[in-house]
Model the fold of this input.
Amino acid sequence: MRDLSPLQKARLNYNPKLAGALVKGIKNVKISFSGATSAVKDENEIKELFKDVYGQPIASFSDKGESLSMLNKNVGVILSGGQAPGGHNVIAGLYDALKQANSSNKLYGFLGGPSGIIDSEYIEFNDEFINEYRNTGGFDIIGSGRTKLETEEQFEKTLATCNALNISAIVIIGGDDSNTNACMLAQWLKAKNTGIQVIGCPKTIDGDLKNSQIEISFGFDTAAKTYSELVGNIQRDANSAKKYWHFIKLMGRSATHVGLEVALQTQPNIALISEEVEAKKQSLKSIVDYITDVVVKRANAGKNFGVALIPEGLIEFIPEMKTMISALNDILASLEKESSFVNAQNEEKYSIISAKLDNESAGVFNSLPSLIKAQLLMDRDPHGNVQVSKIETEKLLIEMVKANLKQRSDFKGKFSEQAHFFGYEGRCAAPSNFDADYCYSLGYNAFALISAGLSGYLSCIKNLTEPAANWKAGGVPLTMMMNMEKRHGKMKPVIQKALVDLNGPVFKEFETNREKYALEDCYVYPGAIQYFGPAEVCDCTTLTLQLEQKVAVQC
Ligand code: FBP
Done:
């Protein structure tokens, strides 16, 4: 039996490239600040809620400015939420910077996500342990979880854990919700004068934690490339056998950044973009009509095959579905403790719910196949989100397209379908060189922010379409990205999610070409992520980032 494949062995020895701003080593990094910041919206409410961490300046690292403190610091790290390729390298970068600063520093990893710090379940990292995980995918080094860190009791327990281990800084590696909670914790710890700092790192394959300061969350690059490889392979199969329509749901809970990137990389016949569906108020029927039209046109050209990409979060962007799901969420919340509902059979549950919905939403709910109704009733995640990964939208659309085709007198072809969901396949892939380098820099940089005595900041590496030697490093105050949004019926402070910008260059590129993709066969087969070889094959980042930064597309 072999424990590691040759590629795994080779990847362990890969030396991630560190951002140019940090490359001279933690002891030589200097910090400078720009002016005070505000919030993206609702400044007064955010200021009131985050009195002690609001409005801090943006921090930048270079070889000019104030030196950092190399005093002894023990740090705790948490992986929060869904897995994203590169998380292990964030921890490796943090560990290396911390040990370079002071070899007596300790790094603790809390097990199973935020619950690890609350329940004081942890390990202490050492060289041997860290070295086994360098440049690997997954979050299995310490595990992850979706516990929300937000109550007074949880904060008290977190403080007790930190005091017991003499921890003076916590690094939370997470998405928008986890970093919102990181900011709440930073505020609480500062208000209590504990001296314990909190620093976030931007993670999520969904790519929706980005803004004027954060160019991209880590994991997006590798996940999108992994899905593109798989979609490309399916396209080649479709083009070889010429007998199936493949409906592929792609992960990305809410925003369609993953779907759009994969569409640009592979050029499928159809790619739905949730944000466009919402903006154009497209009904489920009009989406099905659009897909049916493409199927019919292709069939009339003798092509009874094709590939359609369906974003995971689509269902929540279709206006009538969104209204129905929002009412359904309230109804389910009101019924969750009623045993007559909880113990009822599904069919009975559907009638109880239907009776409580208004006429329009009841009509939408009742029109759905039982499979989808049952999936819509499943538990919400701890942040109150519908678990869209469990809703088989691809199958719903297939059934509706089939029914539609029966009504179309102009359809003389065949429609034979295959349904796929690509999600978990991409979240733990071995990080691309981009993600390996970016993550290592994010972790190293997080320790620089800690050494600067900062709290309530997100680790930030910029200039990402340039070679790593030109990457800039610094920190962005978490409150700068926040606004107030309704969650569980109440207004809450949250980091604003970045949805696909329909006026932006990425969507425009797709929009200009999609008609051609639909009817001609423009399929691109990107192949697997390459780790060793020429830079233009191995080191390029996503088309999304290249188009957003208006650099000439290199690969
Ligand atoms: P994060 O926002 O925590 O990074 O997770 C995103 C995600 O991968 C979504 O794309 C997907 O809908 C969801 O996690 C699935 O969650 P789970 O792992 O709980 O099934």
About this structure: The pocket of 1,6-di-O-phosphono-beta-D-fructofuranose is lined by residues 81-82, 84, 175, 204-206, 251-253, 312, 388-389, 427 (CB under 6 Å). DSSP finds 22 helices and 16 strands in the chain. The mean pLDDT is 95. The first helix runs from residue 6 to 12.
